[in-house]
Amino acid sequence: MAQRFRAIIKGESLLGGLGALGVLYLAVPLLAFFFFVLSNWRQINFSGVGSAALVSVGATTLATLIDAFLAIPLAFLVANSKSVWTRLLGDLVRLPLGLPPLVAGVMLLLAFGPYTLVGRAFHGSLVNSFAAVTLAQLFVSLPFVFEVSRSAFIASGSEMLEVATTLGFSKARTFVVFSLVESWRSLKSALALGWLRAFGEFGATILVAYHPYSLPIFTYVQFSGYGVPSAVGVVLVTLALGALGSLVFLTLPSPWWIIKKMQREVKKDRDLTLEPATRCARFKVEGSLKEFSLSLSCEQSFESLSVLGFSGSGKSLALSYLAGVSRLSEVSEVSYLQVEEEVGVPRNGFLGRYRVAWIPQTSGVSKGYKVKDELEIVRRRNGTSRELFDDLVSHFEVMDLLDRSGESLSGGERQLVALVRALLTRPYLVLLDEPFSALDFALRKRIQRKMILWLARNEMITVLVTHDPEEAVVLSEKIVVLAQGRTISTGTATDIFATPTSIETATVVGVENILSYEFVTMRAPELRTSTITRYFGARATDLVICVPGVVTEALLRFFGEVRVFRRLGQKARVLLEVDGLKDEVVVESVLSFDLRVGEQVEVAVVHLMELQ
What we know:
elongated; alpha+beta; Rossmann fold; five-stranded antiparallel β-sheet; seven-stranded mixed β-sheet; MetI-like fold; 21 helices
């Protein structure tokens, strides 16, 4: 432990030393400059700096604002698009990052010079003007703003965009309402970097706008004409204004309050409620995504359905497809979702006139809003009544979270908020992707009960993806078992749990023990022998530890060595190693005495399920 601690300290010291060298390298020129200023402050001359400062500040501010209106939306588009052409567009925007400033100036002259087509249209006024300074700064700063913004949108993920489409927001509205607020901190940094890059631009500016002087050009003029001392005043002003300008952009307030003001309440109140007798759905999805093939179906009509399966079996992919936010390649013609008379593939959270709500695993709750503000925006967008809002918030115990920001919520709290947010759209079909996985045990059980009551009261169809067999039984009437992208079992909860037909199904629904039995058969007339392996499933409660002197009826008996013993009140849970079996056997039965690790015990099997 001591050696490990010393190694950590040594590693941190190395990193700290390297960081200190970097800071020292940047600090030495600054310290040298300020030492010169303090030593020669009487000789510092500021004449002519004012007009150059006005040009630089004005042109830089204008260029940065144009960056915000052009680069940030473009970055959002590139970050959330998988098109090859969009990627090429992103590469084109980044190209000026690698160009020498003078090369950029030559390109600007060829585009906006007095003898070009554009230059003639403006009578040659685009060079040696305030507009020329702005154009030069814009050309070099826009790629910086674009690249940092693109990285910010990628870091925030595409799930918010996908969830927003099921909440009634178009892609453009999602960008304004959610993505800007979610990535605001990084976007402020992008604008600050853009400001600094534009403010310090010299090479491109000197070719297209020697006049009027900007601060970098004026610094060059003073230095080349009168030496270093005459340029000190310009440098001092440049440092001060550069720091101030970047600080202004870094402290810009979030636009959430403007967005909230912009959101008008939808006046129409759509009523999607239908008669309970006609409430049902069915679906079939077949397709592939890259090298993964998916075939999931429930051809029998259902009101509530659970999809069980191992991790990586395609459950979440199927659910996002049914939500209309994920596309599959090579989708066959039989892929569809049917709700009542509407048959087709959902788009943007709708199938015909039916709203489809989707709650993903990560919830997709915005970190940039307070909970009440995000829910209010969704409520207004969907024309939901205030009474329903209050009812949902109270019913699902979100009242205490309303004044908290999304960033401060725990995983379970975010799931509750996502649940309320989705139900605010008054959906007819609700797609739940492990919606309670982050809740503690007691709260999960309580919210499950509340969910059952809400769905029954509001006549909603549900498809639930879960790893919890008990949750599947509690919330659904029918169950589909998925393994490696294909449907292996479909039926009622009673059928699936009582008589699983395959090893995969038995494992998914919580059958702890898979027992194998080999027997030899002989075929006439050749009298050839062959070995056949048959598999059986047994739950932990179907196995009983035999008590000496007590007769226990059993279908099968075997001996095992105790590896783990845990007391659960009157019951005990025992992990046994059995000769001939690859996996340990789990037994849970009433036991009046304790067992020791390594002890040999006899086990009676009282119930078996034959598996294929």
